[in-house]
Structure formats: structure tokens, C-alpha cells
Amino acid sequence: xxxxxxxxxxxxxxxxxxxxxxxxxxxxxxxxxxxxxxxxxxxxxxxxxxxxxxxxxxxxxxxxxxxxxxxxxxxxxxxxxxxxxxxxxxx
Length: 91
Known about the structure:
single chain, 3 helices
């Protein structure tokens, strides 16, 4: 199991378009991928757009990503990169 913290850096946070990109990316992997706000106990399935939107993660929110499965390393790297690239929204 991999746990990593990522920072929501894009200006609009995890809004619908960013959440959809995250769902599409997470769905490519067989591993289970869960998100939670740092310090919270609520776990959200990253393959559920409604769950991601319910996080209400605005810019500056720290998210903990928990990944468990055969391709967890690849999934972790891809998800970290998506957050670092600000979901492709800002140059």
C-alpha cells in the first residue's frame, strides 16, 4: 500500500473538469485508489466523480492518496504528476 500527500495547486481546485480527469486516470489502474483530506477520516473512491466533488477541495487543500494493488506504484506516480501539472489547466 502506498500513501502520499498531494497539494491541490490549480486555481479552481478539484472542480468538475479536474475531478473528471482524475477519475479517468484512476480508472486506468486496477489498484484501489482512495482520497481523503489531510487529517480527515473520510475515504473517497477516486473512481467516483461525485465522491471527489464532495471533498470540496479548493486550491491549497492537502489530499492524502492511498493506493493498494498490483499497479500501485504506477498509479501513484501518475496521480502525483496530474496534481503537480495542475490538471493541465495552468501553464
